[in-house]
Design goal:
Helices cover 39% and strands 12% of the residues. The chain is an alpha/beta fold. The N and C termini lie far apart (52 Å).
Length: 449
Amino acid sequence: RNQRVKFRLCRSNMEPSTSFEDLLLKIYTLNKVKIEPRMSLSTIQKLAEGFGNPQDSFRVIHVAGTNGKGTVSLKVASILQQAGYKVGLCTSPHITSYRERFRVNGEMISEELMFKLVPQILEKRDELDLTIRYPDATFMLALLAFQESNVDFAVIECSVGGTYDVTNIVTGDVSIITSIGYDHKSLLGNTLESIASHKAGIIKKGKPVIIGRDLPKEIFEKVAKEKEAPFYEVSHDRTPKNFVEENGWLAEQALRILMKHSEDVKISEEAFETGIQACQPCRLELVDPSLYTGKFKASPRAVILDVAHNEAGARRLFNDLKKEYKENPITLIMGIASTKEVEDIFAIVYPHVKTLHLISPPHFRLMKIDDLFNRSRNFLQSHSEITCQLQEPLQNGDVEVTISQVLNNCDGNDLVVICGSFFIMEQCRKVLGYEDVCTLNNFDIPGRN
């Protein structure tokens, strides 16, 4: 009953076969498709219709938000699974394996199922004469995999925004909106009101919606009223100790609302108690010291992994770190995607940091190390009050060399924080000693400029 449930990135002793790599490349190369920002769901709707609308074969919990939606999605799925339901979970992006995006009762879908479904999607694309993108193929794969697995519920995380997000062809029994912050401005707008309006697009007629703390309530309440959707805000009688606990409250209350509006859904208190303990990797993740102790010459106070990759995520991370580790100087290792407005992140992060190391493993989505370093240096030079010590990149921002340098030379009182893009975490985890499945993540898409 009290056993801690934790999502683990699955292990495997089998290297992915060449043919499976070719299969993945068929999906990844869809990123080459150059189309204007999505202002319609017609493509994914036509593709889904071509398969008989698989999204209608199970019940859905739909989750949007700037940050926290992956954690909330996992906790919702875990609670439902503990209650005896078969649950599909669709999240993005992945950390080490593309198959992480599609899980059924906590297990990644198999390579065999992908070999069956991916060709069907590409054939249907050709049959319907559609131009589809990576998100279209990926989400259709999730829907077909969940249908094939006969799930009772699918917990679906939006990728970007809500209104025109590829996932918004589903009708959620409950819609959850976790948080609002500045991210993806080129797609969602430059104001919190505009971003909130996009997130509110997942609210469906007559279906309940719950929002997280400190959101622009009036925007969501207005949309809910227009759609006759019961409206709720997360509530608690105390302040959460960190954002992980806050996300847990939101997941629990969303499912209690589901039970209120769906008498056939039964979830025991034991299922809530156990399922809510589920943890996503790289979200305020304390690395087990046994993984790196003895591997490096020194031992820090702790090593934390977190995918804080935007302004709001960085603020939450460092607010929580200062509560737990206020006496520990921070050594930061960071890599950021090239599309981010990094100076906004610098302004939040760098005042808290004693020593800064920058990394940029090979991935087409990451900012090149020279650009990241120069922009960091310029920012610090123009903010002389910040005492953060920027280090020269080691071997062009090499992950293994940088982490080794830090953990061979840190002080026992230092807190080592590795944060930023999802796309740095595969190599960081490998260097630290994790044994996660890896499937062709760090590569340049053939033919991509």
